[in-house]
Write a structure and sequence with these properties.
Elements: H1 7-14, H2 25-41, H3 49-64, H4 84-88
Length: 93
Amino acid sequence: MQPIFSNSFLSHYLAEFKLSSITNIRTKILIIKGLIEELESGKLQSLKEEEIKPRFLHQFFGDILDFNYNNISNWFLREEKNLLLMQQNPILH
């Protein structure tokens, strides 16, 4: 698996990084471990994209990165809303 960021990019941030400055670090580690276990077990491959995306976005951006859900007007990321018709007829997806 390819890393998302290069070592040279991260080195700038890691030089000053202190794990103790991260709030709820144990909870965040457990969430990340759970996501990794689901990926490695193959569980994610058996799920539909619509089942994975909302939970992943909520856990990763909200629970791990602490994005503020009360301030979504400043987000560039939006959750896709499925139409009722699309939910009733999977052929239309």
